Amino acid sequence: MIVGGAQIGGIQKAEPRATVVARMMALMEQAHRQGVQFLVYPEMTLTTFFPRFYVEDRAEFDHWFETEMPNAATQPLFDLARRLGMGFTFGYCELTPEGQHFNTSIIVSPGGEILSTYRKTHLPGHADHDPARTHQHLEKRYFLAGDTGFNVVRNQGVIMGMAICNDRRWPETWRSLGLQGVELVTIGYNTPSQNNLSAEEGIERRVYHHELSVCAGAYQNSTYAVAVAKCGLEDGNHMFAGSIIVDPDGFVIARATGEGDELILAECDFDKCAFGKSTVFNFAAHRRIEHYGRITNQTGVRIEV
Ligand code: CDT
User: Fold this and answer.
1) Is residue 173 in contact with ligand 1, taking CB distance under 6 Å?
2) Does 43 participate in catalysis according to the annotation?
């Protein structure tokens, strides 16, 4: 299967959904011309990364959320994908009928059916305005921690699972998917180029940690991974690009070169996942769960010596 990543350049506050969807469709058309069969878009593809802004009354930001999917704005994307026979995944902000807010992504079959919904587990940042930071990262204010957990689905013959942005830094994410035999992990991200609490941690280190996380997760679970950025300047704030496709050996096999809308793609031979899964990462043969209790029984570090 040829898998694509549709990197999206900055989306400004004033940019309407229809314009963003048109950009997504242009990349999908290009992907189709180049033989892509499954296309990965970023986290929060439809809007600016608004958690950088603080509002006292969070309801003022409900307009960034989708109450149904597909909806009037995204239906043309679903229609195009069905016409092209393209499977895809993208992230958006979800407001449920019960009034819950999630940072969500979905996998859609080439027939246009939503096969799987994932709600972001690891929400970084903080819940209240913090004047000490160079910019805010208020995901904990605007979203609930996801309630779906990490699941896989078979789409187009491939076992696929989703993670969203900060999830990629947590080995628990990868192993939860790995234990379900995942062959393709999709990750959309919006990562500011600057650490908002440390001037020393600039873009090079940020990109290095991103790549390290994705390559390690792919290798340790013998899976392909596609990590796709929303990047460049958004309302004066810079987010790094660096979209990549990684093979089950942990090697980068495709990489974006710019900071705007850009397609990356790679031929993925999912039979290659079997070697690692049956040798060094044969979980049934080698895992020692009797020693892993702390991973699910405690969150913070406990020093008892
Ligand atoms: N969107 C997202 O999760 N971004 C985070 C920024 C970390 S700094 C609070 C990331 O892990 O890339």
Assistant:
1) no
2) yes
